[in-house]
Amino acid sequence: MLSRRLLLASTCFLPLPAFAQAWPAKPIRIIVPFPAGQATDILARVMADQLTKALGQQVIAENRPGAGGSIGADVAAKAAPDGYTLLMVTISTHGIGPVLYPKLPYDAQKDFAPIANIGLTPQVLMTSLKSGITSVPELIAKAKTGDLNYGSSGNGSASHLAVEMLKSAAGIKLTHVPFKGNADAQLALQSGDIQLLSDAIPGAIGPVKAGKVKAIGIADQRRSPFLPDLPTVAEQGLQGVVAVGWIGLSAPAKTPEPILDKLSAEVMRILKDPEVLEKLRSLSFVPAEESRQEFEAYIAIENTKWRKIVQDAGVKIE
């Protein structure tokens, strides 16, 4: 009996399992699946700085670019679900990418636990000044009477699929001219080689405000504070054209719920900080402020929406 008591007493001094220790007990990394200097990277570093202050442990942004974001996303998906590896997720890695590339090494929904959506930036429909098109109704009318070209930053890109969404909603035909990037597509629009281009606000706002192109509609449910006088596509009578870029934060699936809740609450608090809001504004993003559950539902909706657009348009990526 005495030996049994001694055995029980001795177990009280055994080390507690790692998951039972206070989190965080060591530095945390946020994997950024894109190169340094891009919007995702800048927001990751803002979040890392703010979370370092909030959690009392160093939070580091680590760039793992390549393959449209899938390399970094795969690294995060295979990391231990212990709260020490997080991932910046975007419309590319978790919205459009999983639809375009069914053989990705990760499952955008099953392999991740969403934490919070951070920033949003909708697509802007722009026309060439030479086209004379100044509104969405005018675009639809001209498309029904003649052949119009639209550019994009590449086959399967957000700028491509946003116009495919417009075509489907309006029942019109437009000829797609893919370019190697947004810069080339913008130059073609300004020269009049193409008549239409869709681009996210950060890429569109400069040419629009400089008067080099004509913005005709925001592909969102609400107007943008960066172009407040520009009506949405819906305000002009065409429903169902919502193409919004987003950047959020996720963790590997099976990360403990208390850790996810803590991180989500901290991101929600951070997104109310004036310094962070100013950084978002400088990137032409508006704060998303979506909780864990809202962000998880949002990603599922995005997958369903873009899958239909890709399938209806017959978009294929070799």
The averaged pLDDT comes out at 92
Terminus-to-terminus distance: 72 Å
What is the CATH level 1 assignment of the largest domain?
Answer: Alpha Beta
Number of helices: 11
**Quaternary organisation:** single chain
Number of E-state strands = 10
* Uncertain runs: 1-20
Largest sheet composition:
10 strands, mixed
CATH topology of the largest domain: D-Maltodextrin-Binding Protein, domain 2
**Whole-number tally of structural domains:** 2
User: In sequence order, what are the helices and strands, one letter per element?
Assistant: HEHEHEHEHEHEHEHEEHHEH
Helix % is: 40-55%
Quick synopsis:
This protein has 318 residues and is an alpha/beta fold. It is built from 11 helices and 10 strands. Helix 2 (39-55) packs across helix 9 (257-270), helix 4 (91-100) packs parallel to helix 11 (292-313) and helix 6 (158-170) crosses helix 11 (292-313).
Keywords for this entry:
318 residues, 20% strand, 2 domains, alpha/beta, D-Maltodextrin-Binding Protein, domain 2, single chain, 10 strands, 11 helices, disordered N terminus
Please explain how this structure is put together.
By secondary structure, the protein is of the alpha/beta class. The protein folds into 2 domains: 26-120 and 245-313, D-Maltodextrin-Binding Protein, domain 2 (3-Layer(aba) Sandwich); 122-236, 3-Layer(aba) Sandwich (D-Maltodextrin-Binding Protein, domain 2), CATH 3.40.190. 42% of the residues lie in helices and 20% in strands. The protein contains 11 helices and 10 strands. Strands 1, 2, 3, 4, 5, 6, 7, 8, 9 and 10 form a 10-stranded mixed β-sheet that branches. Helix 6 (158-170) links the parallel strand 5 (149-152) and strand 6.
